[in-house]
């Protein structure tokens, strides 16, 4: 993955990517969020989930939590790190590249 410029940090990435849009693109079966705050995000991507409703996302912060497997994180960077098994810098690079933050 390309190296990030020094000015592209976590705050820049988090501020540039709207959590609702991010999760809508990453979670194919998620219904569009209907309100601000915590929303149902469909099936959890962190385990073999068969029961929608246990995975929730926060549309303001990007936080996520699965009440079945206890996967959780505070933002979209945490989500990419956990789902894809990436380091913090690798996750920043991936998000920057995919969301055109170069």
Summed up, what is this model?
The chain is an alpha+beta fold and 102 residues long.
Description:
With 102 residues, the chain is of the alpha+beta class. The chain has a single domain (10-98), classed as DNA Primase, Chain A (Alpha-Beta Complex). Helices cover 34% and strands 12% of the residues. The chain has helices at 10-16, 19-26, 76-84, 88-98, and strands at residues 38-40, 55-58, 64-66, 72-73. A four-stranded antiparallel sheet has the order 1-2-3-4. Helix 3 (76-84) packs across helix 4. The radius of gyration is 13 Å and the shape is globular.
Descriptors:
102 residues; alpha+beta; DNA Primase, Chain A; disordered N terminus
And the CATH topology?
A: DNA Primase, Chain A
- The CATH superfamily appears as Zinc finger, CHC2-typedomain
Helix/strand order, N-terminal first: HHEEEEHH
Q: Total domains, how many?
A: 1
* Largest sheet features: 4 strands, antiparallel
**Beta-strand level of the residues, as a percent range?**
5-15%
User: Rg, please?
Assistant: 13 Å
Q: How many strands in all? A: 4
Going across the major beta sheet, what is the strand order?
Answer: 1-2-3-4
Q: Which overall shape is indicated by the principal axes computed on the Cα atoms?
A: globular
The N- to C-terminal Cα distance equals 13 Å
**Broad CATH class:** Alpha Beta
Q: Tell me the structural class.
A: alpha+beta
Proportion of residues in helical segments: 25-40%
Work out the helix count: 4
**Low-confidence blocks of residues:** 1-5
CATH architecture: Alpha-Beta Complex
**pLDDT averaged residue by residue:** 89
